[in-house]
From TrEMBL:
It holds the Pfam family DUF4231. Residues 204-231 form a coiled coil. The keyword Transport does not apply. The chain crosses the membrane at residues 45-68, 74-95, 159-182, 188-205. Keywords: Coiled coil, Membrane, Transmembrane, Transmembrane helix. This is DUF4231 domain-containing protein. It comes from the Bacteria. It comes from Allosaccharopolyspora coralli.
């Protein structure tokens, strides 16, 4: 449905004009990168609405039913319809935003590919060593981004686990209190629901696995970054700097491709790094 937006030709279809100069491609890459940032920001806001937002709405609805016992004929339909409408609307908005991100990412990736082809056309065989060294100089930014994302996933994992642990304790206390206090039954139900949803979400998102894999990839890239310069490890066997750096570019691309496959396995929208891939 929405994915059909990317079906028109990228090259010559308004995204990459045929024969576009490198300067024009760089400008378009910057524009699409900015647009990608904005659509991903909207996606984060929608996720806040979809997960904690709907949970809060559900909790308020349940509490309203418990408090407004005299107006159940009015309150109960609203308590059912409002959370249901919010859930459906947030899910639909997230679904549409997912395909917007895919569309922008596909265009951005095509622009980068076209730009890389321009660069390779301009580079001769003698310039590949310089291209590989330039590629290596850009690698610390990629490593830093992986580590930032790894820390973010670790914080999210800790937050979800904290909600599950604290919520379980409070839910047990509220359930015990509800045996003697009728007013404690609603909080007990809400807390139990919060714990169940948080545990299910944590199992689905797999933040811990994401954090570990991102950190492992960052560490592996850093080893390659240092090893090629010191000519240790796999690079000891190469007699020339050109061969060593060609192997380095190949190995780095292999690591990044493996990380991309993991992202797809997690169900994420894969957004490639800003580092240009040049000459293998």
């Amino acid at each position: 449905m929405q994915s059909a937006e990317v079906s028109p030709g990228i090259v010559g279809g308004g995204v990459i004009p045929e024969g576009a100069p490198p300067q024009d491609l760089e400008r378009r890459i910057a524009e699409r990168s900015e647009k990608l940032y904005h659509v991903r920001l909207v996606q984060r806001i929608l996720m806040i609405w979809a997960y904690p937002g709907n949970l809060v709405i559900l909790g308020v609805s349940v509490a309203s039913v418990a408090v407004l016992q005299q107006q159940l004929a009015v309150v109960v339909p609203l308590a059912v319809l409002v959370p249901a409408a919010s859930l459906v609307a947030s899910a639909r908005a997230l679904y549409r935003q997912h395909f917007r991100i895919r569309s922008v990412h596909t265009q951005l990736k095509s622009l980068r590919t076209e730009h890389e082809e321009h660069l390779l056309d301009e580079l001769g065989v003698e310039d590949l060593l310089a291209a590989h060294k330039r590629y290596r100089s850009q690698l610390p930014d990629v490593i830093a981004r992986y580590r930032v994302e790894s820390r973010s996933c670790r914080r999210k994992h800790n937050a979800v686990q904290s909600v599950v642990i604290v919520g379980s304790i409070l839910s047990a206390a509220a359930t015990t209190a509800s045996l003697s206090l009728a007013d404690a039954r609603v909080p007990a139900v809400v807390l139990s629901l919060l714990v169940a949803v948080s545990a299910a979400f944590g199992g689905y998102a797999k933040y811990r696995e994401r954090s570990v894999n991102l950190q492992q990839t960052a560490d592996a890239l850093e080893r390659e970054y240092e090893s090629v310069e010191l000519r240790v490890g796999r690079y000891r066997r190469f007699g020339t700097e050109r061969e060593a750096y060609a192997e380095f570019a190949h190995e780095v691309e292999t690591l990044r491709a493996e990380q991309a496959k993991r992202r797809q396995h997690w169900g994420q929208v894969f957004v490639d790094d800003d580092t240009a891939v040049v000459g293998r």
